[in-house]
Amino acid sequence: MNVTWAVVVLPVLVAVAVNAIGLFRPRLRPRLPVLVLTTGSVSLVFTLAHVIGVIRPAWGTSVLGMLESAALMVSAGLVVRYAPPPRAVVAALVAGLAAGGWLLRVFTPVSPLEVLGACVFWGLGALVAAGVGAYLRSLDVRQERAVADTRTALRLRLARDLHDFVAHDISEMVAHAQAGAVAGDPLRALERVEAAGQRALSVLDRTLDMLHHDRPLGPVGDLGGIREAAARFSAAGPARVDLHLDPALAVPVETAALAYRIVIEGLTNVRRHAPGATRVELHVGESAGALEVRMTNDGVSGTRGRRRGGSGLPGLAAVVAEQGGELVTRAVPDGWSLTARLPPAQSPEWSPESSSPTTRRASGAPSG
After folding, report:
1. Whose CA is closest to 47, among 90, 87, 104?
2. What is the rounded CA–CA span in Å between residue 251 and residue 320?
3. Angle 85-101/61-82 helices, nearest 10 degrees?
4. Is the confidence at residue 80, as pLDDT, over 90?
5. Cross-strand pairs, 58
6. Cα separation of 225 and 286, whole Å?
7. What is the DSSP string of 114-160?
């Protein structure tokens, strides 16, 4: 192999090697801009050497030049897809110029305009490759955002589940322990503490099972669970729940589960923020075609002694709003009131009585 043949083959081999790195060596992709920039610069130098006559065309120069140009086009697409934008633009531009300018090694134009036309025409392939790389890059970005959004939604859902259910069971355990100490019946208190602990563990087991086996989170709780939760709340402390639950109610599973979640959160807040309450009025029934949950306690529930960092009611209000309902909390004489109106299903035909953002948010309500 003579020197002329070696210098003709060298740029092709370098361009192919750079593409192989970009396609098959993800760990080396951060170096791709430098490699493509170097390859394009070497190709431009070889083209200039042909133009000024330092290197004479050898047999196969045209075929190898076309292969080199195609490899540089691929390099432009790869660097646009994988490299950071500022460095990708520079490297792709140099690769595109080299891909379009190789024609001058075998073609002698008669005017500068002809030079420009020939190089631009041949360089269109590099522009197309860069466009394909940019499109694939946008798909990668969308996929990453979708994965990140899904993970965020899952974390928030898990946090809500743990907050709404586990925190309720733990607060019930504390209440039973305190009641046992006051009433002098530690055995009965321990039995109730154990039952609450078992419920908390079942929620944790369900959550861990979903994480381990990549299963979707299903709805938790139903209208029957509301009656049980009210009974447990009454047994755990001085406040009694006066429950009015329409036995003829028939709502979708998701709506019933959300109503159960609202009741659990409301009872937990009464226990934590209104320890002086003696009575909780709880109404669950149909109102104007919607499922209405209305809860009122007679304890003074304000910001005194409130634990910081709670996000139960605001987060729950957001969930209710996502399903097309509304959650309103407000102070009443010597207590606090919570009212939620839920559509029978996620249907655009049903609209809440008020769509005002002020009505949908948990307005300053203490949350656990």
Report:
1. 104
2. 15
3. 170
4. yes
5. none
6. 18
7. HHHHHHHHHHHHHHHHHHHHHHHHHHHHHHHHHHHHHHHHHHHHHHH
